[in-house]
Design goal:
This protein is α+β, with helices and mostly antiparallel strands and about 90 residues long. The chain has two helices and two strands; from the N terminus they run ββαα. Helix content is about 35%, strand content about 20%. Strands 1-2 form a two-stranded antiparallel sheet. β1 and β2 form a beta hairpin.
Length: about 90
């Protein structure tokens, strides 16, 4: 069985600490099935990396908040392979 659920937002604006966490416009949910959890994590990491890079270029800073526990472990490993200038 595959894994999947994939969300994206267009027109988002991220705020710094102490501000609104995020404001999203034109929020869209897309379902995409992946062959396994590792593939899902790699695709998610690539998309998150792309958003972080864009925000770093625009604002010179980016923040990522994720859940704890073992749920995001595959995502963390995949994200660690991305070239992001933190």
């Amino acid at each position: 069985m595959g894994a999947g659920c994939f969300c994206s937002a267009a027109g988002y604006e991220w705020q710094g600490l102490g501000g609104i966490a995020s404001t999203m416009h034109d929020y869209q949910i897309h379902f995409q099935e992946f062959k396994d959890r590792s593939t899902l994590a790699a695709c998610l990491a690539a998309d998150v990396s792309s958003m972080l890079k864009a925000h770093i270029v625009k604002k010179k800073i980016a923040t990522l908040v994720v859940s704890g526990g073992s749920t995001p472990v595959l995502f963390f490993h995949a994200l660690a392979k991305e070239d992001i200038s933190w």
